[in-house]
Amino acid sequence: EIVMTQSPATLSVSPGERATLSCRASQSVSSNLAWYQQKPGQAPRLLIYGASTRATGIPARFSGSGSGTEFTLTISSLQSEDFAVYYCQQYNNWPTFGQGTKVEIK
Amino acid sequence: EVQLVESGGGLVQPGGSLRLSCAASGFTFSSYSMNWVRQAPGKGLEWVSYISSSSSTIYYADSVKGRFTISRDNAKNSLYLQMNSLRDEDTAVYYCAVNYYDSSGPLDYWGQGTLVTVSS
Fold first, then answer.
1. Is A44 on the interface with B (CB under 8 A)?
2. Smallest Cβ distance to A91: which of B95, B104, B113?
3. Do residue B107 and residue A97 have CB atoms under 8 angstroms apart?
């Protein structure tokens, strides 16, 4: 099983600031990496796939980068609706998720 | 518009059984692979099972192998998860999700989930 490790567990950011979230895989997953956003009481929503491609309807302030074992999700200027939990997921093998990063208001 | 609606959750005793359903609409269900993903209360996401469009390929997480069975009825646009020998640790919200653009890719669309509580 490929273990996905996200950091930090919680990120405190002020609206308008930049947020950088990290995800590390225990072995290479190539670019088979997705990011999801989940708000309380809601289902996850796909943000990024292929490590860097935005899903349909996702604002340009969300960007992903990385390959192999190190990945980053960047939110360039946080809006109020962006405060949520973010999960990375690899689909190079049986799908596995990271434990999540909560982005909270500073 | 892709819509996935889960049902069938509820309270069940340890060792019991439950069958979840996922009704799909807004896309040609028979052409897409489907998944079940669960989330224990206050915890992260755990992939549970995968079924290809024709049901020819099925995968399970080790945590449910031998106890859960995924199936689909393409004529009814429905996905199912038969859960037997339920344990406390199976308590979770269960989501169905579709691989819409790539059968082995990310989970493009998700339902709103159905809560399964295993407790005596």
1. yes
2. B104
3. no
3-class DSSP state for residue B30? helix
Instruction: Choose among A45, A55, A87: nearest Cβ to B44.
Output: A87
Contact B105 A98 (CB under 8 A): no
Tokens of B116: 């399964």
Residue pair A54/A62 in contact (Cβ under 8 Å)? The answer is: yes
Query: Which residues from chain A sit within 8 angstroms of residue B92, using beta carbons?
Result: none
Residue-wise pLDDT for B32-58, tens only, equals: 999 999 999 999 999 999 999 999 999
Q: Residue A84 is encoded by which pair of tokens?
A: 């949520």
Distance from the A42 Cα atom to the nearest Cα atom in chain B, whole angstroms: 7
CB contact under 8 A, A94 and B59: yes
Residues A19 and A35: beta-carbon distance below 8 Å: no
Evaluate the omega torsion of the peptide bond into residue B41 and state whether it is cis, within 30 degrees of 0: no
> Burial, A53: exposed, middle or buried (Cβ in 10 Å; 0-12, 13-18, 19+)?
middle
Contacts of B111 (CB under 8 A, 6+ apart): A43, B3, B4, B5, B6, B22, B95, B96, B97
Pairwise CA distance, residues B49 & B68, whole Å: 9
Q: pLDDT digit string (tens) for A2-52?
A: 999 999 999 999 999 999 999 999 999 999 999 999 999 999 999 999 999
Whether chain B has a CB inside 8 Å of the CB on A98: the answer is yes
